[in-house]
Amino acid sequence: NAGVTQTPKFRVLKTGQSMTLLCAQDMNHEYMYWYRQDPGMGLRLIHYSVGEGTTAKGEVPDGYNVSRLKKQNFLLGLESAAPSQTSVYFCASSRLTNEKLFFGSGTQLSVL
Amino acid sequence: AQSVTQLGSHVSVSEGALVLLRCNYSSSVPPYLFWYVQYPNQGLQLLLKYTSAATLVKGINGFEAEFKKSETSFHLTKPSAHMSDAAEYFCAVSPRSNSGYALNFGKGTSLLVTP
Predict the structure, then answer these.
(1) What is the pLDDT of residue B29?
(2) Chain B within 8 Å of A101 (Cβ-Cβ)?
(3) How far apart are CA A70 and CA B83, in angstroms?
(4) Ramachandran bin of B62, using left for φ above 0, alpha for ψ from -120 to 50, beta for the remaining angles
(5) Which of A43, A50, A57 to probe by mutation at the B interface, max B CB count within 10 Å?
């Protein structure tokens, strides 16, 4: 059972480049989330989805876009990367909003 | 929005000593409360969750947490620390509502266990 899978695990971008992070879950969960983790800041919610075809903004959505075309996938896009977006990105999913979150292993992104 | 405050960004204990990680929440109505653990280079894993069934919640790996409404606290404890407990611990809060998402994490406490 794979759980939540994130790709890629590492990426280095130059300022202004674009990229997409892919999150896939095989647990048939309705809720999916993208967080970023920065030292001393904990986890901050970027965007989330409450079901296929839906997305909503979290705490720090600026500079990111998301799409949930299929229930099992949740994509996070950076249209024009900035050094401030250097971070570790985590995807998570859950059956309901108040239930256990299952996390992926993270994507380490550096923007130079 | 509901929030949690974790007191102490770093806590150091000796192997075999009591572990106490502090978390206070801000909410007028008792929320759902969680503790997650993150081992190096991994995602977060759920340690335990408070849902109001009992004020003392037992989790995995010998951890437990006590919900105290009068103190708006949900501190995490373990009677005897093990070297493998060294990790980052996050407290999180969610309101008693399914009307959208609102799980907020604290900034985390890094636990160091010394021999």
Answers:
(1) 73
(2) yes
(3) 42
(4) left
(5) A43
Mean pLDDT for the stretch of residues A46-70: 94
SS3 B72: coil
- Tell me the count of A-B CB pairs closer than 8 A: 58
Q: What are the tens digits of pLDDT across the range B30-79?
A: 788 999 999 988 889 999 999 877 889 999 999 999 999 899 999 999 99
For residue B99, is pLDDT > 60? no
B62-74 b/e (C-beta count within 10 Å ≥ 16 → b): ebbbebeeeebbb
Q: How confident is the model at residue B98 (pLDDT cuts 50, 70, 90)?
A: low
Q: Which of residues 45-84 of A touch B (CB under 8 A)?
A: 45, 48, 50, 56, 58
pLDDT of A13 higher than 70: yes
DSSP string, chain A: ---EEEE-SEEEE-TT--EEEEEEESS--SEEEEEEEETTTEEEEEEEESSTT--EE-SS-TT-EEE-SSTTEEEEEESS--GGG-EEEEEEEESSTTS--EE---EEEEE-
**A97/B94 touch (CB, cutoff 8 Å), yes or no:** yes
In the block, tokens 């373990």 appear at B78
| Average pLDDT value over all residues in chain A | 94
| List of chain A residues whose C-beta atoms are within 8 Å of the C-beta of residue B46 | 100-101
Task: Scan for tokens 């974790």, then name that residue.
Answer: B6
